[in-house]
Write a structure and sequence with these properties.
Length: 262
């Protein structure tokens, strides 16, 4: 029953993640934290692996199918920055985990950061039509922005999520679906770097192999389904889905903060 629940969470999260360009980790991480079955380190790692599998499928499928909306002048330096930030974020998590009396303290910090990020993202999304946006082209700026996104992605174990979209909207004036695809591209690089760092430093936490298998499977199948649905719905519908998701995530992270503080 637990394995099915993990599969279902990862499948649904990846469907929504592929549609909105948020990777799905922002749903998977707090949802599994709320279950309380595995520790924070294991959930962060498993969430990152699931997001990696989903984004790898989505990005490669778009590239091979010739339908990619990734602008390499902007997307590539953002992705490289995301990879470097992914390494830094993984190291930050490991350092905090080693220096904390309990992994629940780290989990509480993650949930609090995610709550603030989600709240800020919701406010921006609601009012973005009334706010100015920019069209930066500087590769150095793209590299820096990608680095910051990569740190958040790896440390929080969410893949990148909604903050990527806000950054792409504000700094590069991307339309919703183009921002979603470029967001997945950044997430792919940051999660690859985070996984490689974990392998090189031998910092992979303990967890049942069956859990990883069903989560990755759910992520890939969800990515396939979400990519198909993304083609059939409008930018307006994607925005509404995104806003609804942010509200749910705010409530869930508030609940997790309370649970971790007990």
């Amino acid at each position: 029953m637990i394995l099915f629940s993990f599969f279902l969470i990862c499948f649904l999260a990846s469907v929504i993640g592929a549609i909105c360009g948020i990777g799905g980790g922002i749903i998977i991480k707090p949802a599994l934290d709320a279950f309380g079955v595995l520790d924070v380190a294991a959930i962060s790692f498993l969430s990152g692996c699931t997001v990696l599998s989903m984004t790898a499928y989505s990005v490669l499928r778009s590239k091979l199918g010739g339908s990619s909306q990734i602008d390499n002048r902007i997307g590539l330096p953002l992705a490289i920055g995301g990879a470097l930030g992914g390494i830094a974020g993984k190291q930050l998590f490991s350092a905090l985990a080693a220096g904390s009396a309990s992994l629940n303290q780290v989990g509480c910090m993650q949930a609090a950061c995610l709550l603030l990020v989600t709240l800020g993202t919701l406010m921006y999304t609601i009012y973005k039509e009334k706010l100015p946006s920019c069209r930066f082209q500087s590769r150095a700026l793209c590299l820096t922005i990608g680095g910051v996104l990569g740190v958040l992605s790896s440390f929080l174990g969410i893949g990148g999520g909604p903050v990527n979209l806000v950054v792409l909207f504000f700094f590069f004036s991307m339309p919703t679906k183009a921002a979603a695809e470029n967001s997945l591209y950044i997430i792919l690089f940051s999660q690859m770097a985070s996984l490689c760092t974990a392998l090189v430093t031998n910092s992979i936490p303990d967890f049942p192999a069956s859990v990883l298998l069903v989560m990755v499977l759910g992520g890939i199948i969800g990515g396939i389904t979400g990519r198909s649905l993304n083609k059939k719905i409008s930018d307006t519908a994607v925005d509404k889905l995104f806003i609804g998701l942010m509200v749910v995530m705010i409530v869930m992270n508030g609940y997790n903060i309370v649970q971790f503080m007990r």
